[in-house]
Design goal:
268 residues, Rossmann fold, 7-stranded mixed beta sheet, alpha/beta, single chain, 7 strands
Length: 268
C-alpha cells in the first residue's frame, strides 16, 4: 500500500463515486495511457498476443490502445470498482471484439495462473501493496509474458502537499513508493525489469478549485489516515490558494504533478 496508507473500502468507494464523471476529467490519465503505450508497446505492433489483461481498467481507455495494437487478442478487464466496469460496458462499441469484465482485487486476482501473454496496468497499482500485486501479475503471466505498468511515485501532487503544509500538519496527500521499491518487488517475484523510466505528467486547470474538483472527479482525492477531518474555513482556503498561486505557469494554468513511473517487466 502507499506510505500514507489507504484502506480498500475507501479506494473502492472513491472510484465508484467517480465513475460517471471520470472520462470528463481524466485528461492526464489518458495522456499517461499513451505514454505507457509509446514506452512499452513500440515495436510490438502485430506481435502475437492471444490473451491480454487490463489490470485496473477503469472505464476502459487503455483497452482501446491495446485493441489497436493487438487486434486479434482476447481481452479481460479487471477493476475493483463495479461502477467503473459498468461505465466500460455501457460505452463499449458492439462492433468491437468482446471484452470480459471482471470485478476483483489486484492483490488477489480471480484468474488462473499462466493465463496471459500481456498484462497492462495504468495508474492502478499505486493503490496496492507492491509485493502482493506484482506477485499476482507474475502468477497470471505466461512464461515469456510481459507486464506494462504505469504507477505513481512519491512526488505526486507535491505542490498540494507543500501548500497544505502552510495550513496544518495533516497528511492531505498520499506518499507513493519510489521506483526502486517497485523494481525490487518485481525481482522478488521473478519478474525481470526490461526497461523503466520516470517522468512528470501534469493535470492542469485555470484555478485551484477546478484543479481539486478534477482530482476528485477521477477518484484520486487524498484518502490518507491523517487527513484533515473538518472543511477548510475561508481564511485557510485563501491561504491555500495564495500558496498554490506560486506554481502558476506562464500559460496561466495551475499544475498538479503526477510523478510517473513506467515499467516493462518480463516473466523469463
Amino acid at each position: 500500500m502507499p506510505e500514507g496508507r489507504v484502506d480498500k473500502h475507501s479506494v473502492r468507494s472513491a472510484f465508484n463515486r467517480a465513475a460517471a464523471s471520470y472520462d470528463r476529467a481524466a485528461a492526464v490519465q489518458r495522456e499517461i495511457c499513451h505514454r505507457l503505450a509509446a514506452f512499452a508497446l513500440t515495436g510490438h505492433q502485430g506481435a502475437k498476443r492471444q490473451r491480454i489483461l487490463d489490470a485496473g481498467c477503469g472505464t476502459g481507455y487503455g483497452l482501446n490502445i491495446l485493441r489497436d495494437t493487438f487486434p486479434d487478442a482476447s481481452s479481460i478487464a479487471i477493476d475493483f470498482a463495479p461502477a467503473m466496469l459498468e461505465q466500460l460496458m455501457h460505452s463499449a462499441n458492439p462492433d468491437d471484439k468482446p471484452i470480459l469484465p471482471v470485478c476483483g482485487d489486484l492483490e488477489a486476482l480471480p484468474l488462473a495462473s499462466g493465463s496471459f501473454d500481456l498484462v497492462w496496468s495504468s495508474l492502478a497499482l499505486q493503490w496496492c501493496d507492491p509485493n502482493r500485486s506484482l506477485g499476482e501479475l507474475a502468477r497470471v503471466l505466461k512464461l515469456g509474458g510481459m507486464a506494462c505498468i504505469a504507477t505513481l511515485g512519491p512526488r505526486t501532487l507535491w505542490e498540494l502537499r507543500e501548500a497544505f503544509a502552510a495550513i496544518d500538519q495533516a497528511e492531505h496527500v498520499i506518499r507513493f513508493h519510489e521506483a526502486d521499491f517497485w523494481l525490487a518487488a518485481a525481482r522478488d517475484h521473478g519478474l525481470q525489469p526490461v526497461a523503466h523510466t520516470r517522468e512528470d505528467a501534469f493535470a492542469l486547470a485555470p484555478d485551484l478549485r477546478r484543479l481539486l474538483r478534477d482530482i476528485k472527479s477521477i477518484g484520486a482525492q487524498t484518502v490518507g489516515e491523517h487527513r484533515r477531518r473538518q472543511p477548510l474555513g475561508r481564511a485557510a482556503w485563501n491561504k491555500l490558494e495564495a500558496r498554490y498561486e506560486a506554481h502558476r505557469r506562464p500559460d496561466g494554468l495551475l499544475p498538479a504533478t503526477y510523478d510517473l513511473i513506467l515499467l516493462t517487466l518480463k516473466k523469463p
